[in-house]
Amino acid sequence: MYRTHTCGELRKENIGEKVTLSGWVQLKRDKGGMIWIDLRDRYGITQLAAERTQTDSKLIEKIDNVNREYVIQIRGEVIERYSKNDKIPTGDIEIKIEELNVLSESETPPFTIIDNTDGGDELRMKYRYLDIRRNPVREALLLRHRMAQEVRKYLDNNNFVEVETPYLIKSTPEGARDFVVPSRMNPGEFYALPQSPQQYKQLLMVAGMDRYFQIVKCFRDEDLRADRQPEFTQIDCEMSFVEQNDVLYIFEGMVKYLFKTVKGIEINDKFPCMPYSEAMEKYGNDKPDIRFGMTITDITKNVKGKNFPVFDSAEYIGGICLKNGSEYTRKQLDALTDFVKMPQIGAKGLVYCRYNIDGTLKSSVDKFYNENDLLDFANKMQSEKGDLILILAGDKESTLHALSELRLKLANETGLRPKDTFAPLWVVEFPLLEWNEESQRFHAKHHPFTSPFDEDITLFKTDPGKIRAKAYDLVINGVEIGGGSIRIFNKELQETMFQNLGFTREEAENQFGFLMNAFKYGPPPHGGIAFGFDRLCSLFGGSDSIRDFIAFPKNNAGRDVMSNSPSEISKEQLDELGIKIK
Amino acid sequence: MYRTHTCGELRKENIGEKVTLSGWVQLKRDKGGMIWIDLRDRYGITQLAAERTQTDSKLIEKIDNVNREYVIQIRGEVIERYSKNDKIPTGDIEIKIEELNVLSESETPPFTIIDNTDGGDELRMKYRYLDIRRNPVREALLLRHRMAQEVRKYLDNNNFVEVETPYLIKSTPEGARDFVVPSRMNPGEFYALPQSPQQYKQLLMVAGMDRYFQIVKCFRDEDLRADRQPEFTQIDCEMSFVEQNDVLYIFEGMVKYLFKTVKGIEINDKFPCMPYSEAMEKYGNDKPDIRFGMTITDITKNVKGKNFPVFDSAEYIGGICLKNGSEYTRKQLDALTDFVKMPQIGAKGLVYCRYNIDGTLKSSVDKFYNENDLLDFANKMQSEKGDLILILAGDKESTLHALSELRLKLANETGLRPKDTFAPLWVVEFPLLEWNEESQRFHAKHHPFTSPFDEDITLFKTDPGKIRAKAYDLVINGVEIGGGSIRIFNKELQETMFQNLGFTREEAENQFGFLMNAFKYGPPPHGGIAFGFDRLCSLFGGSDSIRDFIAFPKNNAGRDVMSNSPSEISKEQLDELGIKIK
Lengths: 582, 582
Fold this sequence. Notes:
Two copies of one chain form a homodimer.
Chain A: E1 18-31, E2 34-41, E3 44-51, H1 57-65, E4 71-80, E5 93-104, H2 121-126, H3 128-131, H4 135-157, E6 161-162, E7 169-170, E8 180-182, E9 190-192, H5 198-206, E10 211-219, E11 231-240, H6 244-263, E12 273-275, H7 276-283, E13 297-298, H8 300-303, H9 309-312, E14 316-322, H10 330-341, E15 351-355, E16 361-363, H11 371-380, E17 388-394, H12 396-413, E18 424-428, E19 433-436, E20 441-444, H13 459-462, E21 471-476, E22 479-486, H14 491-500, H15 505-518, E23 526-532, H16 533-540, H17 571-577, E24 579-581
Parallel strand pairs in A: 3-5, 6-10, 12-18
Antiparallel strand pairs in A: 1-2, 1-4, 2-3, 4-5, 7-9, 8-9, 10-11, 11-23, 13-14, 14-17, 15-16, 15-17, 18-21, 19-20, 21-22, 22-23
């Protein structure tokens, strides 16, 4: 037996016991007369001790030969520590070493196995198995484990059935971002890896499974941005005989359950629901962080006609108001101006107005607006003495985008986005269709099976862009955590939808054939949702990066630097598959 | 709201309530004055009723228009049934229809949605979403769900951490049966889909995760035999600081827990352990069904020297004894002879000996053996009056194989393999190496990281074929359910192993490089196991086929006949991937 206890287990009550422990040498401190070793495993750290003069010389020699990250097994007696360590649960005791076996040696690791390691990102990825030994990464993976268990517990308790859908599926003509898999048994033919199990979960509803879920890997072969992975994990769910509110109710319940069981946070209030249009007007984007206000006010009508050409020529002028920001220095304001002028933000300039504590107002456009004008704007924006008003102008879409970015930057700078506060929000009433300039036709904003609002169906004939969808996103702290929709299950409506998306009947058949076929045999009303599990875990873990919550992530080029994959394969293998490299 | 209750929920206590139900029309019976509909959902069947003369004519028209597999929503009052149906939980009540909406219509399904359907295999697969509506398939998937939840509960309670390992991994030179995935972002390079997460789970042990599990899809691009799938699911586990007994203890516990929670079966006894050599000698194969005896007796030494050339020239002669089989007719014995002569069984003939109730013995080799001789054999085989002795001769390996097949056939015929009896068994002490005639070298029987018995290590120099491995299989009812091993974690031993397998250092590096590299930094002693989850579910479900326990299985050619995949992909897609079809 390699151990009687783990390294996180022994307490005062165990004093006097003879124990066997195994683990990694975290640290050895040699203070002349005394040698201490911190022995580490997944469960904690236990201090080992040996007194040079009172220990057998062979054992001392063994202890002296031990180095960091060696795996050792020791036997000894649990004794009370002279100087206790109240930072670790085993801090009251130590083990007096009586026997020591080196189970395996270690070369010096390429970076130190401590919380704030000296290893850079690439090195840590290359030696991921060492990186995982560090507390922050291990704890991220343990959190992910806990969340997966609790998700399943909640869904199981609510009658959801976990069904494994296939990974080798049909490649569809428009699946441009599909990973494909050549089939040796069917030369010249390919499977695709699923971008999501969307069609299968809808088939399961046709199949009468009523409530389905799966924590499942999905794949997308796209140019990676920071924090995107070619394989990622979804909590994928679908329900039958439901309307939008039924879906929101169940999954709001799931998120609350997770906060409670995993984070110990009780959220009693119903999550607020915000229409997409309101999110865009007030926050400038469809995933607002509502931990703080600083909402956008449209002052287009209020500021025109004073001969300030920038405003007079703008489609849209909007402002936000930073509470207690009137003392922002000129330098700080210049930095903000530089920020909004960055290409990815895209504004032309920034107008500010200080609403000073003494009630005076001072702006960068004093030439055009007197103090009364400024007070009008201030009132319109519900600004108070001591606030800073920031105004951007331009075409509506990009100005709202820039205001949103500015709002988030100010919030980050002023501590309005604390990682331990969580503000969930349902964004609803998304547009069903989006006009695509390039193809000069409408695209489905969500996917072509998303149901329109019943009362908006007549708009297909008059103003398709105005049709609202029974689609919903869950946003927490400005991060899109999940999204879904009620699906179309009516043949005629589905055909109208395909027509509006510019699909011929044949194209629709080609791309969605087996699902359309299934819909001939009594599809129930149904809807669902999918959560980005990597993202949800990183949110719960208080991190901005999903990588630490993935055991073996790939880098931004889609490479696994540890195993050096992807890689070339042999000519024989290519021959067997009936393919050639061009 | 589509429903107030499911179709499995209403009882006598609900009589008088107004309810709304939704579901599929299972059956409509029109008895002139009365119309009944069986309404079905995942949870059960509820009977609906309408009396022609007392129902509004528009409603009657709607009811008349409804057909099998239509999805309808009805509102009505729960009333007591005149003739109760004690076969279903809702059998005391029915709903008097007051309103009916057709939610969606159905064409006539290609086969009937009943337990014993008229649909053939191929048709059921093509319309799998209809097949799943049938009780047996739905129940198989619900059983699988239940088992997955209980597996995770047990492992979570035992400190196992669920870690998702990657699906896009490195293709290795010997991964001939790997599915590969071309990378668009890295043209000419490929990922592979994992045949198992073996190397990753060992890396997680190096990473200090201590106990890992995952219910995970694995992929193998091989010629499919009946009941093999190109993608299949494993319960994959690994533990650190363990010896073989620790692993067996934990996973025996898991299987007992599953039997108890899923099947209500308590197994208190420790699972028996049987060395591989004993399994081969007594049962003729390494996954014996021990629900019954009928073990093989080696009578090679007892039967030679009586001038019967078949026996005298045979390397091995073995027999089994069928209890109470002495009355097998000549015709039955001829059939058994035909059976053992089939090419896949491979025997040349069958010798029988009836040990009659009256104590006389009568054999097919009476010319060579008198009654005393026969009595000797009978005693050697612990045969009794009324038994039938069956003997095969030939080279040892194939004769044992044939005896094993004969034993199973007799057991099937005589009801010795009841589906509701479960006999788990650990098979242990597998040989570490297997001689391969073709390549004229040893291959690893399990895999190259499997640890040999400590006391057998010296045999590497003298008789490598005799080395026993710390490897184990869990066998239930003659089916291999799981298998695993204690791994080598010592560099020198690993090198000895590679040498014996004929790997050069470079080849080993190429194939197992990143794992070997990880082993430089303090690998802990570790071992693990993997269970075939599809197989385990079908065993629990009392089925010989795994297909019904997979939601969307592929056929024996690796095709999904529902979606018609794999399929051709477009030239543009091939171009983007930088590959060509040959």
